[in-house]
Write a structure and sequence with these properties.
- The chain is α+β, with helices and mostly antiparallel strands.
- Helix content is 50%, strand content 22%.
- The chain has 3 domains: 11-81; 104-299, 2-Layer Sandwich (Alpha-Beta Plaits), CATH 3.30.70; 300-345, no CATH class.
- Strands 1, 2, 3, 4, 5, 6, 7 and 8 form an 8-stranded mixed β-sheet that branches.
């Protein structure tokens, strides 16, 4: 649009224009020079209207461009947030998006919390035995299931390191956090039964099992790293001990410390496993293997799908040398509930 200036009428011009129009309304004739002057006023006003119309159209067009740009930016932001969500736990994602996380390396706090470690026994050997596509499919199906269970119980997934998983619970109620953490671990172990079936159908015959260690104690939580890259994570002796518990655990089992057991002894069944020595800890750590949940908290029947008229019992391949105490408990629980349902009908 060409640059044009408004020829705004003065107050005197407007008064004179109104006087001319008033005389015309009274059927009074105007002199030729007055008609010429009135025509000039009208021409000037029409020209101003054209300029203002052009300005309006340009403003609307510019506004549309801005709206489109804003919509594009919003779409880009939503895509970016969706990608971020895959790399962050829901708790941390919520904190960051809500602006509650101070992105500095000097904002720390200490909390008493349960720390969870797990890994797949024999996974490293498996990486040299199968194709990359099969390996990635196996690992992703495993991590997807573990993530689903962790989020269900409210855990913060700290990191994946290959097949290893680290999770912590940072809410204020430590007893509740420990109870949820241990029940999460039990559900993860029982979920491995169906995962192994899936992998066997895909041609992976290795009897893969996971080890789980859970320790409870004070950790320092916050942003750790450099000015360029930081991790929102936890550090401390509690973390190291949880890792040691996991490495000392029998495959297919859950090994917890006495500090963890103290919070959940009313809801779980355990078997004492003696003490272990942890570097940096002055005293031995008493350990317990989780064998199941006490009634009425027993885990759902892994092999049993119930309905109003009956049930469906999945096939069970039992080998005394290969079944862990937790898996054995799940099998017994399923069979007992199946028998109970038969007797009731």
């Amino acid at each position: 649009m060409d640059s044009k200036e408004l020829r705004t009428l003065t107050d005197e011009d407007l008064e004179q224009c109104k006087a001319f129009i008033s005389r015309l309304n009274d059927n009074e004739a105007l002199a030729p020079h007055e008609i010429k002057k009135l025509a000039g006023f009208l021409e000037s006003t029409l020209a101003d209207f054209e300029i203002l119309a052009d300005v309006h159209d340009a403003t609307v067009a510019h506004s549309t461009v801005l709206e489109n740009e804003l919509e594009d930016k919003n779409n880009e932001s939503e895509i970016l947030l969706a990608k971020m969500k895959k790399y962050l736990s829901p708790q941390l994602f919520k904190l960051i998006v809500g602006g509650d996380v101070d992105a500095s390396t000097d904002n720390y706090r200490r909390k008493n919390m349960p720390v969870f470690f797990s890994d797949i026994v024999g996974f490293t050997d498996l990486t040299d035995q199968i194709e990359a596509e099969a390996l990635s499919s196996l690992l992703n199906s495993y991590l997807n299931k573990m993530t689903e269970i962790a989020l269900k119980w409210g855990g913060t997934i700290d990191k994946f390191i290959g097949d290893a998983v680290m999770i912590f619970f940072e809410e204020d109620n430590t007893k509740d956090c420990v109870a949820r953490c241990v029940q999460m671990a039990i559900e993860m172990q029982t979920a491995m039964i169906n995962l192994r079936k899936l992998w066997q159908q895909q041609g992976i015959t290795n009897n893969l099992k996971i080890r789980i260690g859970v320790n409870t104690g004070y950790c320092t939580i916050g942003n750790f790293g450099s000015d360029e890259r930081m991790d929102y994570t936890i550090v401390g002796g509690t973390v190291n001990t949880a890792s040691r518990l996991e490495s000392n655990c029998t495959p297919g089992s859950i090994l917890i410390s006495s500090s963890t057991y103290g919070f959940v002894q009313d809801i779980i069944e355990v078997e004492p496993k003696g003490s272990i020595k942890v570097k940096g800890v002055s005293h031995p750590i008493e350990t317990f293997e989780v064998t199941g949940l006490k009634e009425p908290l027993q885990q759902k029947c892994t092999f049993l799908s119930e309905s109003n008229n009956g049930f469906k019992l999945q096939s069970i391949n039992y080998s005394a040398n290969e079944v862990s105490p937790l898996e054995k408990e799940a099998i017994i629980n399923s069979l007992e509930k199946a028998l109970k349902k038969i007797r009731q009908q």
